Every structure is written in C-alpha cells, then in structure tokens.
C-alpha cells in the first residue's frame, strides 16, 4: 500500500522531533553530571551533619528577657574577678570602671597570665554615640635595645631581665579611666587551695591606687628600673617616663550571623601572621588587601552554614606560631549598653 506524500511528511517530522528530544535530554543529563562532578576547590561538597544533643539545657532568663543577664555582664578567666567587676557595675560604675577593677584582680589571681608588668589592648564601645576606639598599651622595647642584643643568647629574648619590655598596663588603665608566687617557704610547690600571700605586690598596688604616675615617674619607677638593671636588663627611667598609650580607630564592617563570625575569626587568627607592629613595619598594603571586598568574597566562598573544618590549613597556613603563654581576656557590658573588651598579658612566664 502506497503512503501519500502528506503522510510521509508527517512521519518524517515526528521522527525528527523524537530524535531532537532524545539529543536534548542526553545533553541535559551529560552537562548536569559534569556540573555535579566538577571539582569545587573552594567549596567541598557539604555533608549532612546530625544535630548534636546539648550537654546542658539552654539557660533561661526572666520572662521577656533575651538571655540570662538581666542588667549587665562581666566575663573574665577568674570567677572572683568577674564578681568584682559585677559589684562595680552594681555601684553605678561604668563599663570601664568594672573592666579596670576586674583586670587588676586578674593580675593578682592569675599572675602567670597578666599584671602590671605587662600590657595589652582595650576595645571601648559607647552605645549612646556608637563610638568605638582601641586603646593600645602594649609593652615597648627599652631605648637601649638593638638588633644584636640577643645574638649568642637565644633564651635571653624570652627569659630574664633582658627580655622585659617597658610595661604599659598601669598607664593604659589610667589613661582609659581618665578618658571616661608559686612556692612555699620550704621550697615546695604550693598545692591547689593553699593561700598565696604577696605583701610586696599588695603594697605596689596601693601605691598605684594612690598615684598611677608613680609607676612611671616616681619612686616606684626607680624601684622597677633598679630591679631590672640588677638582673642585667637595660631599662632606664627615661624608658618609663617616655612611655605613651596610643588611641586608635579600629577597622569596622557589617557581619552576618554568629556562625559566620566564628568562621571569619578563624581566618583572621591565621592571617594575623602576616601583620606586624604598624609603628615599625609597613602593613598598609597588607591591611588594604585583607579588607578589600574581593578578598572577603574569596573567604566567604569557603564558609559553609552546615559544617566547619578540622584541618587548620583550610583557614590559612602561613607560619608556625610558637605556643603562647600568659594572656587574659575580659568582656564587660554595662546596663546602659556600653562595652569594654580587653586582652592583657605579661608574655612569657
């Protein structure tokens, strides 16, 4: 039976259409598989993670409160010092009053981490004006320091009087406020819970209380210099007299949720190895690059909402950081919303 030309045309059109559809479907499958199998150097495929069961029930606060802190909060690495800071706030002290009181306490309670012989940084936030400032009171090298002073004595840069820097803690606390050990007499190591008495240090704190400038310009300064020089150090009275606290404007930006902030902090901790003291090293270009939108976007691509990375190299692997000794951190939020965040240290002990 002969097939008319019209029917032949219809059959041909149907066959061609089916072939085209098959080709299109095949191409879609191929490209989809390629896209799925394409390596993602900056975004490893996320793996489902089970929701961990909380070890403790979440804290509960008074009805209508956002958290367990009804008025204010003080968080330090020593419970009694946090309580001192809290009591200062209860007596209508400011966030800075609270922070300084707690930090002096830490110098007594955790003398291996911080104290008047060290220095640090304070970040101050004023809620009423939304003003933020950094107070830099890190230690400085003595005036007689030089490039070769540690040659031939590797440990002299870490131990003994020659390792001491000009302390900034007392002046840092004083300037911030104005603007707004281990052994018994028998040689045995003290046991947990034993009372540790430091009468000379108590007297030093009394002298600082009565006159903070005495630490840098008075009899206390002379005592400090004498102790350092008796130990072979190179401190002079001029080093203490000339010490200056620095007030800096911090970098700022807008961040997302808490998990993103925590992940971003991990990158910041790694990339700090590329920075240095801006008073002596030119880090302008490095800071410019680190704060560029392009750099931020490159890091954002490596942050996932549903996982973190146990391999530290994911966050940056530049230099090996030696173990860190002697650092203390304190955070205070006053009832009026002002906040103080301080990190202090006596460095190596």
Automatic annotation (TrEMBL):
Residue numbers binding L-glutamate: 138, 345-347
InterPro entries reported in the protein's UniProt record: GGT_lsub, GGT_peptidase, Ntn_hydrolases_N
Gene Ontology MF term list: glutathione hydrolase activity
Any GO BP annotation: glutathione catabolic process
Species whose genome carries this gene: Desmophyllum pertusum
Biased composition (Pro residues): 41-62
PANTHER family, per database record: GAMMA GLUTAMYL TRANSPEPTIDASE, RE13973P
Catalytic residue list: 327
Database matches in Pfam families: G_glu_transpept
Transmembrane segments: 9-31
Record-level GO cellular component terms: plasma membrane
SUPFAM superfamilies membership: N-terminal nucleophile aminohydrolases (Ntn hydrolases)
Region (Disordered): 37-69
Keywords from the UniProt entry: Membrane, Transmembrane, Transmembrane helix
The protein, known as: Gamma-glutamyltranspeptidase 1
